[in-house]
Amino acid sequence: MDPPRPKSITLSELTDRRKQLQSQQSTVQSRRRQAVCVRRACKKYGGKNSVNVVLDGLNMTVPKGCIYGLLGASGCGKTTLLSCIVGRRRLNSGEIWVLGGKPGSKGSGVPGPRIGYMPQEIALYGEFTIRETMVYFGWINGLTTKQVNEKVDFLVNLLQLPSADREVKNLSGGQQRRVSFAAALLHEPELLILDEPTVGVDPILRQGIWDHLVHITKDQNTTVIITTHYIDETRQAHMIGLMRGGKFLAEESPTSLLQKHNCESLEDVFLKLSVIQNRGKRRRSSILHEITEAMTAQIPPAELGAENPAIDNNSEISGEFGEPLPVPLAKRNSSLADNKELPLDLPPEEQVRTRFTDHFKFIQSNHMKALVWKNFLWMWRNVGVMCFIIGLPVAQIILFCLSIGHDPVGLHLAVVNYESNINDCAIYEKETKCELAFLSCKYLKYVKAKNQKIDYYDTESTAFAAVRRGKAWGTLVFSANYTDALRQRIEMGKDAEPEVFDLSDVLINLDESNQQISLLLRRDLVYAFQNFATNLATVCNYSTKVVTPPIRFNQPVYGPIVPNFTDFAAPGVILTIIFFLAVALTSGAMLIERNEGILERGLVSGECCLRDSIFILI
Ligand SMILES: Nc1ncnc2c1ncn2[C@@H]1O[C@H](COP(=O)(O)OP(=O)(O)OP(=O)(O)O)[C@@H](O)[C@H]1O
């Protein structure tokens, strides 16, 4: 079936529409005069293959001092729009002006205490009491403790909360949402952004909350943007934006919407507009075409093309369904001139002068105080977690010192002693007289004294096989004439035959696959020989200098004569563990805060992610 043909628009209808359109004229000045002004906002999620367009050229105008109800089905993009307004997300294209500046720009005060933000999640520290929660958010937003305490009693009363000394985690879900709401209200911000504040709140209390919102918009000129799924509760709003398909179906006062669409409830209006929107773009385009044609026809040809530098080139006004309407410049000029009520003075944010030192103003004292206090309070309330976090590295360090860093002992050495069999060796090991026999056995006694294990093998090949199988860390081979050759080497010195030198050497082959073990084994084998030779020289009345290398190690300047690996490695290990502990604590805390929405809330209040990390690290 063909879609119904569009009706032609009468002049009175056109005038009506123009009146609505004029309230959304879009010049740089008017954008900055609004509490919030969004123009041609586009926001999409996902990559090339699965793009999810959430905002599709959306226009929104929130005048100062009004309650603006943002309505729409679940998942239509309300939270996304709000997080772009508070500066937590960026648009893919389009502009946002908040309280006269662009969110995140210097001097705009957004994010910062000018905004009160209540996210959809509870976003509170469960371990804190209601009062402590208020103190934390109050300090972050520049209030003194006295000011916070004064407000806490009022808010507890207004929102019918239990005693301010109750911990947040012990409150019901609805009570927790009210504490979250109170935290946003606390510092009386210029712009209050509330994402579903009335979920889980009974009708009487809901009415109380709305009454308070009406009161603060009237008396304090606060602007409130509120999202809710209870469409009809927004009857008290000054303006509502019905959102669908990334655009607004309408942006008007509830009364005029009800009258215009001849409906009894805002839900009916929403349904009616949704049906109209579903009729398709073709019909909408033709309506838009009619409007613009008709408007253009009313302008004298001479005025077409006249330019006014006060109006920016991207000007557009939004109509029903949020469609941007191209309006001739001259018409835009005249509509601007018609609106005499608009104040001409501009908010000063953009002109704020910044000094060079402002770029280095990294830490604000109130933020520092709040963050340090919050972190210590959190630790204090989570003693178990903190004990684990601190106890774990302490246990790791103790285990390290007990198990790692000592000299390895009990290493197996495969010995092939052609001079003596194992039984003879056992006898001569005990010998203490100056008897130059079976010196290989006497040397092995000193090796054993180093707490290494000696395994005897008959041949070199079996000893090598043992090392290859991992049963020993090295082979020691003594020649059959080892003792004679060693004696001649000592007695004849430089005059000894080359063969004497060969036969008096202990042939050693180590498993070098583990550098530390092989270094320590080399050291033990050399020291064992020095001890053995020194002892032999002493009992035989030789000068010990004959059998030791001509190098003398005196008392060390620092540390013991035989340095300990634990003493060397422990400081590094302790520092590494402390570093990773701090990193784990910081990232853990930030992940918890991020998942629970507390981080987002803090960032909207003007906290800085980097600064927070540094405080947690400290
Ligand atoms: N970080 C994200 N990455 C990808 N998609 C997202 C992300 N955040 C939101 N979306 C999607 O964007 C759409 C709009 O989400 P949004 O949370 O803004 O909706 P909403 O109108 O606030 O919904 P509700 O009323 O249920 O809270 C949803 O389809 C959601 O799945």
Model description:
The chain is of the alpha/beta class. Among the domains are: 59-253, P-loop containing nucleotide triphosphate hydrolases (Rossmann fold, 3-Layer(aba) Sandwich); 412-550, abc type-2 transporter like fold, CATH 3.40.1710; 571-617. Helix content is 46%, strand content 13%. Strands 5-6-7-3-8-9 form a six-stranded mixed sheet, sandwiched between helices. β1 and β2 form a beta hairpin. α4 (130-140) crosses α5 (145-158) and α13 runs antiparallel to α20. The model is unreliable at 1-7, 21-25 and 298-350 (pLDDT under 50). Residues 45, 52, 54, 72, 74-80, 120 line the site of adenosine-5'-triphosphate. Adenosine-5'-triphosphate (ATP) binds next to β2 and α3. It holds the Pfam family ABC2_membrane_3. One of its GO terms (molecular function) is ATP hydrolysis activity.
Distance between the termini: 70 Å
Strand order of the largest sheet: 5-6-7-3-8-9
Instruction: Return Rg in Å.
Output: 42 Å
Total count of strands:
15
Helix content: 40-55%
The CATH architecture of one domain comes to 3-Layer(aba) Sandwich
Strand content: 5-15%
Average of the residue pLDDT scores: 79
The low-pLDDT segments are 1-7, 21-25, 298-350
